[in-house]
Structures are given as structure tokens and as C-alpha cells.
Amino acid sequence: MSSLLNESDLRHESAVVWLENPDYVRQALDKTARRRGKPRYERDGRMVGYTELDVHAEADPDSGLQLRRVFFLLPHDRDTNPDGPYHEGAPGEAVDPRTIEPKRVGDKTPRSQRGPAAAIAAPST
Q1: What beta strand segments (E) does 1-125 contain?
Q2: Helices (H), the chain
Q3: In this structure, are residues 36 and 68 in contact, taking their beta carbons and an 8 Å threshold?
Q4: Exposed, middle or buried, 3 (CB in 10 Å: 0-12/13-18/19+)?
Q5: What's the rounded mean pLDDT across residues 5-25?
Q6: How far apart are CA 93 and CA 116, in angstroms?
Q7: Which of 26, 51, 58, 67 has its CA 20 to 30 A from that of 33?
Q8: Per-residue model confidence as pLDDT tens digits over 68-101
Q9: CB of 63 closer than 8 Å to CB of 90
Q10: Confidence of residue 116 (pLDDT cuts 50, 70, 90)
Q11: Residue 13 carries which DSSP code?
Q12: Does residue 5 register a pLDDT over 90?
């Protein structure tokens, strides 16, 4: 599904589980068999986090699957390829994982958009 999420898509989230702490993450809704626990991950790159759903989340009536948010990075993202296309800047959908909460999409920050956290120190005077 699209990485451009609406908070209405996230109304049944109860927790965010982080596996890593990168400068930015991509996010998407994936269909999974369960509300809780680490979901299967079947795309390029690697999963760095996911959400868990509350008991009121209903499965899709046709597939029986739940829609859960998954946070991921692709092989050409900054943490794996620091001299690659996102050495400076970030993908359009990138958000700072520190701003993500259950039921909240997350925000772009200087940390997520410009470069590694170490490079975003306040300018010296």
C-alpha cells in the first residue's frame, strides 16, 4: 500500500515496536495474519519496526488479514549506503522515527531530512 498514510488508517494501533533506531524510516501498511508480534516482511531492504493492533481491530472480511504499519529501509538508504543517493537529504516519504507513536503518522525533522544525526550538530559560533 501507499507510504502516504492517514491517521484514520492507524486508529487501532496500540503499540510501536522498534527493532533498530535509524535517522529516518519509510512506512507502509502491510496485510498480516496477526494483530501482534513481528509480522512477516516480504519486500526489499529490512524491517526496522512495526505496530501492534488493539483487540478492536477487525480483519478484512475477504482475506482475513489485518492491516498493520511496518517501518523499513531499502538497500540504498543512508544507514546502509552512507555515500549513496541519500548522503544528504532523504526520500520524500521519510519521517523521523522519534516522532512516530501509535495512531500518529510521524513528522519530517532536520534529523530525518538532512543527514546522519552526528552531522546535524548545532552550528558553532
Answers
A1: 13-18, 26-32, 46-53, 66-73
A2: 110-114
A3: no
A4: middle
A5: 93
A6: 17
A7: 26
A8: 999 999 999 988 888 888 888 889 889 999 999 9
A9: no
A10: low
A11: E
A12: no
